[in-house]
Amino acid sequence: MIISFIGSGQVGRTLGDLFAKAGHKVILTNSRGKKSLERTVITLGENVFAGDQSDVRKSDLVVLATPFYAIEELDPSLLEGKIVVDATNYFPDRDGKNDQLISRKTASSRFVSDHFKNARVVKAFNILSVAGLSSLISFEDDSKRKVFPLAGDDVQAKKIVSDLIEQIGFAAYDVGSLDDSLLFQSDSPLFLFSGTLDEWKRRSAS
Fold it and tell me: Where do the Pyrroline-5-carboxylate reductase catalytic N-terminal domain residues begin and end (predicted)?
């Protein structure tokens, strides 16, 4: 699968490295252009490449790994028809005041979906700090795998993202629709919770 990242910061580099090691072709992009990523892609290995918007349009799956405020700066048609993983988090102090998001009347991933109207948005990969992500990976004991929750309205898109989560050594936990992603967004008690599937089921049900 060809996976493009919009955003090449720590989230993009860390997840991109894991996806590349799982056998996928990874394309990193940013607002500064391909040349600014030359050194980064060399350090990440042969399956990782620098790209631009034309590469994003050709990819199978796109990961949004930008600050949340940058979403509205992106062309809504850029991700038309794409499976889009929303790995962003909304922080009012950084991203600006939005009453609908602050009041939790609208999930941040629903805001993303409303901007990219024809994209197949799945909320995932936002909840665990990437700084220590490699230490949480497990391929040997499924019961001890840490969870990445996900949410979305497109069942097939969620299945593809779930498989991707499993491929990099984590467990996928489907909490429901994009509106249900309120459960694990940045203003929720479960944000940054590192738990197994059983632990997640207990915590999310309480």
Answer: 3-90
